[in-house]
Amino acid sequence: MTSVLTSTTARLDRVRRHGAVRAGVSTGIRGLSAPDTDGRWQGLDVDTARAVAAAVLGDANAVEFVPLTPDQRMPALAGDDIDLLTCNATWTVSREAGFGATFVATTCYDGGAFLVPRAAGVTAAAQLAGRRIGVLGGTSSAASLARYYAPLGAEVEVVPYPDAADALVGYRDGAVDAYVCDGVVLAAEKTRLPDPDAHVVLPELISREPMGPAVADGDSHWLKTVRWIIFALIAAEEEGLTSATVGQGAASALLDAQASLGDTLGLPQTWIGDAVGQVGNYGEVYDRSFGAASGLDVPRGLNDLWTRGGLMYAPPFA
Questions:
Q1: What tens digit of pLDDT does each residue of 26-54 get?
Q2: pTM of whole model > 0.90?
Q3: Which residue of 79, 109, 138, 284 is 20 to 30 Å from 304, comparing CA positions?
Q4: For 152-189, b where at least 16 C-beta lie within 10 A, e where not — what string?
């Protein structure tokens, strides 16, 4: 296992020498990270990595995507196989303390939900007590199920699967009575079933799952670099700066400040314009990944800006 870099800008320097960001993504979850019919990776987690590449290297396409199962993602980060993990991982203390990872920011606020056959007549999670529940191995779903059912004096039989494709097949074939995963994941996975309308995602959430990218411990500068690139996408939406207006000379406090901020972070003086111009602000990324045009139509909810009742905001850039 390669040792973690410790010098001040070691990771940033390595990414520049390599000419690409190595990003760990899922093996295929629509809306988050999945290849389209042309083999091009798409989704919120994918665009997060592309924004980092655009800000650091000036090219949003300078990303090498490394597909990982849930069991592989933290070891890959700890083993220095990737520069950035953008793989629908929930921010937990066990992952930060146990795997030498540091979560950068929350890019998707979600919760554990249940996918069930409509014909089963299940309307609440409590009705599934004692049943077989499919989960992704290496995720926080099994622990969430235990916490939910324990106060009810009930248990469920947890059936772990190595990846989302296997879990969906197990659910489709009736090997489990329900499939539990993050709500945005289930909204996407449901569309892969032969008859999506024959299945329903229960509105009840049994956990809170703040998901976001993570980096390996040992390089605080890389952590801060990725964090402020993500904050820039959120701040751009709040300011009204979009991928279209970046090049149109729109009045923008962010663009006015990007040169000095870039000097502070050791980034190009056009880093915010490069990230937003090539990838879009946070709202554009979310709409492209989960909005009506994506075919998923997942409401933003907690992922909306704080000015509209959500949890998304960026700290001051001043």
A1: 999 999 999 999 999 999 999 999 999 99
A2: yes
A3: 138
A4: eeeebebbbbebbebbbebbbeeebbbbbbbbbbbbbb
